[in-house]
Structure formats: structure tokens, C-alpha cells
Write a structure and sequence with these properties.
Blueprint: H1 8-24, E1 36-39, H2 52-58, E2 63-73, E3 80-84, H3 97-102, H4 106-115, E4 124-130, H5 135-147, E5 155-156, E6 172-175, H6 180-188, E7 195-196, E8 200-201, H7 213-216, E9 225-231, H8 248-263, E10 267-271, H9 278-284, H10 295-308, E11 312-315, H11 318-328
Parallel strand pairs: 1-2, 1-11, 2-4, 4-6, 8-9, 9-10, 10-11
Antiparallel strand pairs: 2-3, 5-7
């Protein structure tokens, strides 16, 4: 599948911008330079699975870690706060991102800062999946990030969003969603000359998940929108549980989307690729809608996504995909 050519002036500007970034940014900050495990739903559910962050980190860095955030009242304390949860109502057992994500990675980040070798930074991509976007919630997330800003990959906030500025690589990169509410807090309210701490996803049009890539995403990366987040339905519209056989046609579609993303200077992520038995789903708290049904079936998709150069492959099976990616290197 061939993407529709861009007008020459726009293409020239994009090429100039990309070329400038290639000379000024470490390789990991450029799309298409590495394939990472993205630890899906990496937080506890109720009283269970508190070890998910430990499992993810044992898979080794670099990697991505997804955190779902909900603004809610803790029924035990009465305090309203940003909680790690897939949805409400909260039970009072949900941790916050400070204690569950930032403090557990402290030793990794501080070691990286002491050694001072940014060639493989960011070591950890924090993928924020916001389940609610109250103004107070977004403000609370921003204030938390400010407390850890020395750890975070940043870019200067300038007057022009369409001009991509070079990133200052640090051990942690923070990505968030495509909503304008998030942009308002994480980009628009940052003063010119300030630092962008969070980078959003491009807007997508998925009314037809099988549409050509230029229909799904019409805009290239800019100074804030730096990545493209995809349900696996853009590859197999019937979904994981009804996917059927993996085919060359599907592999071609996957390659087209990845190449389109990288040509537009975007990291690209696909979620969520699992292959487990019903018993494994139950005892691990994994969703059946993301399940291809077997290790063999999901391994074919993992290998294809890695071969295509997808930047982030989301799965609940951290250990299995982590081992596979290491073996493919």
C-alpha cells in the first residue's frame, strides 16, 4: 500500500526538520530505531497483582510501562486523588503513580544519571492512559511530573507547535493520549521558553480501521504530538479473539502502517497482543478481548511487529515478549 505523496513544500519542510533532529538527537529518540516491550496495564487490580511493575522491570530496560489513571475519591481516606485504576469505583487499595511507578524506578534512573551515558536513553517510556480528564486530575499529574522533571526527557516549548524541537534525552520519556484536554494542560499552558514534560499522540480517524494510513492519520509529528497509538483492529479488524490465521496480506498492512508512521517522524504503538489459555487469563487478570488464544498465534504477531519495526508492542505477557525481543536482537 502506497501513501499519497505530500505536497513538495510540506515534504521539504518535514525532511529538513527530520534531518535536523537526526543530527541533534540520540538514536533512541528517533522513531524506528528500536522495538520495545510495552507492559500493558502495569498496575494492580483491586488487591491483586501488585507485582506487575516488578515483572516489567525484570524484563529489562529499555521498555515502556503503561499506567491507567483515574481521578477518584479513596473510600478509605476520603481523599480525592489520581489513582492507578482501569475504572471506578475505587476500593481504597489503588496506589498512586508516585509510589507505584516513580519510586520503584528510582534506583534505575539514579544509576543512569550517575553513569551519564545517554546513548540508550530513555530507558523507560511511561505511557499514560487517562481514564478521566477532570481539570484537577490533569493539574495533579502535571504537578507530580514537575517533581520528577530532572528524570524526564523534555523539549523546549516554542511559539510554533509545527516546528519539532530537539529533545533533551533523560532516562524517562512520558507519552500521553490524543485528547485536546490533555494538550491544553501539557502543552498550551506551558509558557514559551518552558519545558514540555509530556508528549501527546496524534489524532486518529478510525471510523474504518482498514482505511489507508493517510486516512487514519493526516498529520505528521509536531513539537507536542510525537507518537501514534493503535488498537490491533487496524491490522486485523475482527479483533484478536477472531483474528484467524496470520497472512502475508496482514503483514504487509502492518509494515505499511509502521513505515508511514516513521516517514512522518512518529513513534508507533500497537495494543494489546496476548496469547494465553483461559486459565492463564483468569489467574493473571488479563482481558479475553486481547487474546489470540495461543502462544504460537501471538508469537507470529510479535515477530511480525518486531520485523516491521514497531516502536512499542503492548502485551500483558511481559516475560515472554521480553525474551523474544532479546533473542531477535
Amino acid at each position: 500500500m502506497r501513501a499519497r505523496p505530500w505536497p513538495i513544500p510540506a515534504l521539504s519542510l518535514l525532511m529538513f526538520s527530520c534531518a535536523s533532529l537526526m543530527h541533534s538527537s540520540p538514536a533512541p529518540l528517533r522513531p524506528g530505531t528500536r522495538v520495545l516491550l510495552d507492559a500493558h496495564n502495569c498496575y494492580p487490580y483491586y488487591e491483586w497483582w501488585f507485582d506487575r511493575i516488578d515483572r516489567a522491570l525484570r524484563a529489562g530496560v529499555p521498555l515502556a510501562i503503561e499506567q491507567d489513571l483515574l481521578w477518584a475519591r479513596n473510600p478509605k481516606t476520603g481523599a480525592v486523588a489520581s489513582l492507578l485504576s482501569h475504572g471506578g469505583p475505587p476500593t481504597g487499595t489503588e496506589p498512586g503513580m508516585r509510589e507505584y511507578f516513580f519510586e520503584p524506578i528510582r534506583s534505575i534512573v539514579e544509576k543512569a544519571l550517575r553513569e551519564g551515558n545517554p546513548s540508550d536513553w530513555p530507558l523507560i517510556t511511561l505511557n499514560l492512559d487517562l481514564k478521566s480528564e477532570e481539570p484537577d486530575h490533569l493539574a495533579a499529574i502535571w504537578q507530580l511530573l514537575l517533581q520528577y522533571q530532572d528524570w524526564l526527557t523534555t523539549a523546549p516549548r516554542t511559539a510554533r507547535i509545527d516546528r519539532m524541537e530537539a529533545m533533551n534525552a533523560r532516562p524517562v520519556l512520558v507519552l500521553t493520549g490524543e485528547s485536546d484536554a490533555q494538550r491544553a494542560v501539557f502543552y498550551d499552558r506551558v509558557p514559551e521558553g518552558g519545558k514540555l514534560l509530556v508528549f501527546g499522540a496524534v489524532h486518529t480517524n478510525t471510523k474504518d480501521p482498514s482505511a489507508p494510513p493517510e486516512v487514519l492519520v493526516k498529520s505528521p509529528a509536531d513539537n507536542y504530538h510525537r507518537w501514534w497509538n493503535n488498537s490491533w483492529h487496524v491490522i486485523e479488524p475482527a479483533g484478536q479473539s477472531n483474528a484467524g490465521d496470520w497472512t502475508m496480506e496482514k503483514e504487509g498492512r502492518l509494515t505499511d502502517l509502521v513505515q508511514y508512521a516513521h516517514a512522518h517522524n512518529l513513534w508507533i504503538r500497537f495494543y494489546t497482543l496476548d496469547g494465553a489459555t483461559k486459565a492463564e487469563l483468569s489467574c493473571n487478570g488479563w482481558f479475553s478481548t486481547y487474546n489470540f488464544g495461543s502462544r504460537e498465534a501471538v508469537r507470529k504477531r510479535w515477530e511480525a511487529a518486531a520485523k516491521a519495526g514497531a516502536d512499542y508492542i503492548a502485551t500483558d505477557q511481559y516475560e515472554d515478549l521480553g525474551r523474544l525481543l532479546k533473542s531477535l536482537k
